[in-house]
Amino acid sequence: MKSRQKTRPGWLAMVAGTIILITAPAAAAPPDTKTEKDEMLWLLGGGLRSAVRFETADKSAKLEILHRSSKTKPVWGLSLKAGVENDLGLLFSGGTVAPKAEATARAGWVNLATRSDDSSGAVDWFIVRLSGTGQKIVLYDASAPFAKQIDKRVFGAPGIEIRYGSFLGEQQLLLSIFGRVERDNNFATLGEVEVTTERSDTSSGVTRKAQSKVTARTGTYLERTAAPMGFELFHKLPTELLGVSLSVVVKSMRHERPEYHASGGLFLLKKGRPAQSVAGVTVAFDDLGRGPLEDQFSVGLVLNVGVGP
Amino acid sequence: MSNHASHVLEVRFSGAVFSLFVTVEGQEIDLRFDGDSTWQRTITGFVVTGPLDVACLAKGLSQTECVLQITLDGTVAGEFKGTISAKGIWQIVRSIPVPGAERA
Asked: A63 Cβ partners below 8 Å, 6+ apart?
């Protein structure tokens, strides 16, 4: 059995919706800074609608149903999302996929402390999300006995999140705070390897080799209950088509040191529709304090190609 | 269109805003979202007694373009365009003349 360690690309390009170029040692993709604006547009939505979206940024397809029978009633939503955990380089080079599926139910209320008919420019909202994630885990441990080196299992993870957000029109500021409790693992942070098993039969005097490949992760695998909490904000410069974002998340876990994540970005916004960014530069610090700063630091360039919102 | 006759009223708003409040003749119109940036509602049997009083208040990021269109019996009665201000709102109050309809 031999393994080929993944070579992390210096840049990663994805087309069809979003192009992301990562120019530094990339521990994580740039943060999704559109989240709050999208959530706000979603909350205002009414009626029954469904949509299927393919999200290239996290290699997934999403089916989403939203319902709001009247402006004064809560918004209900149900979404099903299926994707892969693999690095794209290995995925397209013929590696086997590591599938992941997520079902989310959510309810949202708008204008709790604000009114849609006052001219303050302020809007607030509250969201509760219940989610369940199923993930196929394949681990490779070279130090284990041969028969146990490849460990396949399914990881099930329920989660609940509450989020309160506010838009302050005069300050052009979107701000939200959130707290979540979820089952979590460190699968995505483990190194990805392609494991090739060769079987030889030389009994006939002729050597015939049969190969099978499996994509696995290697390293110390952990499952834990995590409680991330933090805030996200987005500020649009009032007179320019520019916006800045900041996100800070503290992730607490039982029997482990907390993780600290921070990210920020500068975005060029679309003319006439600044809720959509055209391009942006992001910086992210992933799990600050875990090791050398340069290992946690990433810089990204995000280009949105004619899709919205 | 005759006085006090009922009509088909269509209200359509375009713009990626975070909050929207529209009234016609003092009655709030509960607009439905298409999932992108258009809100629309059609009301049949809408009684018009004179010029249509229309008010709209939208909240969102500054420089967001907004279009409010009022259609009566398939004919565009009024279309208003604007941009959300630096304070995060776009607000209009208009009275649209309706041929054949006068104040009771």
From this structure: A50, A51, A52, A79, A80, A81
